[in-house]
Recover the amino acids of this structure.
């Protein structure tokens, strides 16, 4: 926020609101993330900031020389503070730069530091996960074993082009938990959750956002801070041509039954 205290306060409050809306206090990483993408923090740099290492395996991150042309255009729209955080390297010079920012005993040996595992492994596999081949049982495929099409009690909804559809969900008590799962048979869809204040007024509790749920099941929960009528909305207003077929399941739990589950 360019060291503007008022802007920083606004950003912080929005962040807290977003965390409440998405119930992050109760969030638990899916098994696949715990197994393959769990700990990416190496330690802290010389200024005390956390160091996050993300191994990308065999993903080709090489950028052609022409990349510098569009980047010169894009960076004109970036704040100077943001530009200072971005650096590009060839196959040389990056280790020296890391050592300017990170103590040698903190930086793993394969990055140019001196840190190793107790057995001398330079990749520090006891510190950070180095990814690997993901087991096929975690793969998501449309109408595969992970599709909602195979789940008993799943509902189907057709959202015509340039329109929206709403589903009424009644929370009888404060603290009820609304849980949802849905997937789109083709394309993406806007999704949000709204609390009805009056018949003509609804306030968003999960901000409407476009999600690509074509090849996966989107899941989420909301802890109701107020009792009343909630509406799950599927928004296809932006699509002038395609209707969207939605498979969905909504469940409402009391706070006690949610904790038991």
């Amino acid at each position: 926020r360019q060291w503007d205290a008022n802007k920083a306060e606004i950003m912080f409050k929005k962040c807290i609101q977003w965390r409440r809306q998405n119930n992050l206090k109760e969030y638990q990483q899916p098994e696949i993330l715990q197994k393959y993408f769990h700990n990416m923090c190496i330690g802290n740099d010389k200024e005390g900031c956390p160091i996050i290492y993300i191994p990308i395996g065999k993903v080709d991150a090489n950028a052609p020389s022409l990349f510098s042309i569009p980047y010169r255009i894009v960076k004109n729209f970036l704040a100077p503070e943001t530009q200072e955080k971005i650096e590009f390297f060839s196959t040389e010079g990056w280790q020296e730069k890391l050592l300017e920012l990170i103590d040698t005993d903190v930086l793993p040996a394969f990055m140019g530091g001196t840190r190793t595992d107790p057995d001398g492994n330079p990749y520090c596999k006891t510190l950070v996960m180095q990814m690997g081949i993901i087991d096929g049982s975690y793969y998501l495929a449309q109408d595969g074993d992970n599709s909602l099409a195979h789940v008993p009690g799943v509902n189907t909804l057709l959202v015509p082009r340039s329109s929206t559809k709403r589903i009424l969900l009644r929370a009888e008590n404060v603290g009820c938990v609304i849980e949802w799962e849905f997937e789109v048979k083709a394309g993406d869809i806007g999704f949000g959750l709204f609390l009805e204040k009056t018949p003509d007024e609804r306030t968003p509790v999960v901000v409407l956002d476009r999600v690509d749920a074509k090849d996966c099941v989107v899941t989420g929960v909301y802890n109701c801070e107020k009792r009343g009528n909630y509406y799950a909305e599927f928004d296809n207003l932006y699509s002038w041509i395609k209707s969207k077929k939605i498979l969905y399941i909504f469940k409402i739990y009391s706070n006690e039954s949610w904790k038991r589950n």
Observations:
- The chain has a mean pLDDT of 85.
- Residues 5-21 form the longest helix (17 residues).
